[in-house]
Amino acid sequence: MPKVRFQALAESRKREHTSISEEGKRSELFGKHVFNEDKMLQFLTREAFENVKSAIFQGNKIDRKIADQVAEGMKAWALSMGATHYTHWFQPLTGATAEKHDAFFDILPDGRAMEKFGGAQLVQQEPDASSFPSGGIRNTFEARGYTAWDPTSPAFIYKTTLCIPTIFVAYTGEALDNKAPLLRALHAVDQAATGVAQYFDKNVRKVYATLGWEQEYFLVDKALAKSRLDLSMTGRTLVGNFSAKGQQLDDHYFGVIPPRVLSFMSDLEKECTKLGIPVKTRHNEVAPNQFELAPVFEEANLSVDHNLLLMDVMDEIADRHHFSVLFHEKPFAGINGSGKHNNWSLATDTGVNLLSPGSTPMKNLQFLTFFVNTIKAVDTYEELLRASIASASNDHRLGANEAPPSILSIFIGKQLSNVLDELEGVSKGKLSPEEKTELKLNVVGKIPEILLDNTDRNRTSPFAFTGNKFEMRGVGSKTNCAKPMTILNTIVAKQLTDFKKEVDVLIDKKGLKKDEAVFNVLREYIKTSKRIRFEGDGYGMEWQEEARRRKLSNNKNTPEALQVITSKESLELFKEMNVLSEVELKAHQEVELGAYIFHIQIEGRVLGEMVYNHIIPAAIRYQNILLKNVSGLKEVYGAAHKKVAESQLNILEQVGEHIVQIKKLTDEMIDARKRANGMAMSNKKAQAYCNNVKPYFDKIREQSDKLEKLIADDLWPFTKYRELLFAK
Ligand code: ADP
Ligand code: MG
Questions:
Q1: Based on the domain organization, do 212 and 156 belong to the same domain?
Q2: Under 8 Å CB-to-CB from 355, ≥6 apart: which residues?
Q3: Of ligand 1's atoms, which has the minimum distance to the CA of residue 355?
Q4: Which domain holds residue 43?
Q5: Does 722 lie in the same domain as 649?
Q6: Each residue of 389-439: pLDDT tens digit?
Q7: Cα 5 to Cα 8: distance, rounded to the nearest angstrom
Q8: Which pTM does this prediction carry?
Q9: Is 292 in the pocket of ligand 1 (CB under 6 A)?
């Protein structure tokens, strides 16, 4: 057996189950490593504490004197916890997180050593960031980037480093990261939604977007994962014959969690708890070795940070348990991929979930307002929302009948559809007293009861209403949630801004009462946004046809999906909402296209190496064994050997044929790659990679998988699916 595979299997079989460590009460550990309100009260002056709180809740600036005080307090706390370094923790456009550690330790001019950390170090840092993607921004402006403290996401200690969440921007102010645009979008939706929420409650001062993600992932024994070139270089298997047992039996979903996985999970949860990540549920997923973890929802910016931190922590804890975590959306062909549902809603500072029906007709009118406006926003900007979840790896999932299609639509359930149908019939302008009573009591007033038994959930819908929130299901498991959250909150902000203008005109100019005006505008929205509502099977072919008739976009791959980012409508939207400028949008699009190209390029290279250096040599070795056997038989049997060696000759022929095919396809793929590389515009290059290079991957794989089925097990160079997926 090839050495790498043999050693990996031997190593994986030696694993002992790590026992579950003593946990204690989770509530006592919660936030132990976070500079949260408790710690601030303890380590900050009253003045500094008040300032940080007003920065968090009112978005006020923190001046240098106060920043010095905050830094002093943070340092004292961090040192008391045994931290030795600090870092600005940020989210470059690569989609991952980045950090550069500096020691607190410093030498004073007189030679004495001390621990130093002041306001200057807290507020701003200049990482040597020239190798982070900027989509050309830094070249254009010849400006360097700097990171700046985001006080709305608390600092935390990971291992021995104080991590300070920051944004990453160019000196000219352009965002070079995913957090700065998100914060701007959250500000926009706060402003717009607060204005609308005040129709219903004058006391509302702030509206938060809330996010609860559900993270899916695979766990594979580390030695086995590392033994495969493709898994370790690209995060997915580029070849691999199906295991005889896959997920046909559906016996993994919600099944008993294997002991080794359970001890990983409990270590992970313990670490998350200390870091203030409120993880709550864990279970097996549909595919073998696939799992899910979900927290209690939080304010969206914090929730995004927590998801990114979680992914880092998972890598590290998995390593301790000799696992590799696979965050790729489709690590194994023929088996379900992984996603990251984004549950989203809006909540007021008065503690009300704006997408939760209430107990009075007025509360329900408020619910309907936010509900219908979200539907309208998604209808108008469906293509942008699709673009926000586009990536080379997520392309494997969207549209492959296991995850929502690449067409955006909204599922709201039969009962709420009926409510919207009834509202559509409301007459224009002023309402008669009877009409009002009917509406309030029999339509709007009935909503909470309706929702109680609205349990049918359409799993094929990419954007479903689930009782008190919308669930965006197309997000990839690897994706930084900041991307879809930036777009979703921006489009809802824009929609609510327009809504308020329209309602105010009806009140001020047409003399309508507030509720009449709201009903009137909502009725129009319900009419004009109907095409986005779809209750049927999102996986079916009929829906593709129907969606085309409805003129909904259906961008099946990333290069296509990314085009809309720089459309006229998109430029106007992001400018009006103050979220992204034209320069930034172009730069972000450029970075995404670049990432796509690199992704496919790397896959192509790795696949080429696997074919030439591993698969073909293994096939030839087997060929030689067969040849030797056949010539031996010929020696013994003479002319009669053809009958005796019939099977061997047949296999020889098949192996020979697959060698010819796989070599030819790989040569062609490499040619196509060279042609794509010659293109200057990223746009064209990405399309060339998508349409001319990538299609070869599946064809090459088909040949490889056939060879895997033919060739002796002990000669096959790669760890097999059954070994990867069923090792406990
Ligand atoms: P399920 O969808 O699996 O039945 P739940 O409906 O309880 O489970 O919640 C799924 C996810 O939705 C959880 O991560 C939860 O935190 C999140 N969630 C619940 N309410 C909200 C909300 N108001 N805003 C954002 N996320 C929410
Ligand atoms: Mg869900």
A1: no
A2: 345, 346, 367, 370, 371, 374, 465, 468, 469, 470
A3: 23
A4: 31-177
A5: yes
A6: 999 999 999 877 677 789 999 999 988 998 999 888 877 778 788 887 877
A7: 5
A8: 0.95
A9: no
